[in-house]
Amino acid sequence: MAKAYERIADDLRESIRAGEPRPGDRLPSETKLAERYRRSVPTIRDALRVLRDEGLVEKQHGRGNFVRRARTKVLRSSDRHQWEKDRARRPEAERLATGSTEQATGLRVDDLVFQAAYREVKADERLAEALGVPGGTALVERTYRTRYAAETAPFALVTSYLVRALVEPNPDLLDAANEPWPGGTQNQLLSVGIELDRIEERVTARPPTPEETAELELPPGTSVLLLRKTSYDIGGRVVEMSEVTLSGDRTEMLFVTPLERW
After folding, report:
1. From start to end of 15-131, where are the E strands?
2. Structural domain boundaries enclosing 61
3. For labeling, which of 14, 52, 67, 216 is most exposed (least CB within 10 Å)?
């Protein structure tokens, strides 16, 4: 038999999913809810905790409990890489019109807020192994944050690494002021004569760190997806590696694998 707080959570959940109250609306106070359901305030708090853990309700300090607004969903498809490669050689005006984030979210360029920061680092043991270079090799570390202008949390936490010697023939690739780059990384690499042959992605999941929870504004109990993307050129050389932390509550991964016919 369901406990009292579970029955209350079920009733509130059903109302929220029916659209009354609506996203952004404040719920009645805990005292008012206790009167409505003829239960104690601690029982109401247990019910609200269940809904917060499900991401349906958020508690705002000093203001009360609110129906959580649904965040923009992100659909990351494996088809995106060929789309980016095809687009890399298109005219700049076309590349400026849209990018991978817009493709994954259905938003427009003007809907997005983008931030990028570059710095030079030396390859430690982990990065040297990932990029196939000697330890101490100069790298360009790039961090990216993109968010919907109507929201405050980025879609993902992205850190990308390039071998400096590969991209320094084009000085524009060393300056974060040139971001967002029309055509993304594949066009950047094209500008120094590099064509990608394949991209490998490894996905794992784990609980978030406190820092990730804060920056991604994760509901309690939400996991993060960790995506490590390794890009190889047509000679089999690793030319870029990215580490991406994705919000488990708003990200869907879609893998499409064409199969050869018998």
Report:
1. 57-60, 64-67, 74-77, 112-122
2. 4-67
3. 14
Q: Which helix (H) or strand (E) holds 240?
A: strand 238-247
pLDDT in tens, 169-227: 999 999 999 999 999 999 999 999 999 999 999 999 999 999 999 999 998 889 999 99
Strand 156-163 relative to strand 112-122: parallel, antiparallel, unpaired?
Answer: unpaired
Domain count, the chain: 2
Residues 137 and 229 in one domain: yes
Q: Is 9 inside a domain boundary?
A: yes
Cis previous bond, 180, omega within 30: yes
pTM score, two decimals? 0.84
CA angle 65, 70, 76 (to 5 degrees): 145
Q: What is the CA radius of gyration of the chain?
A: 23
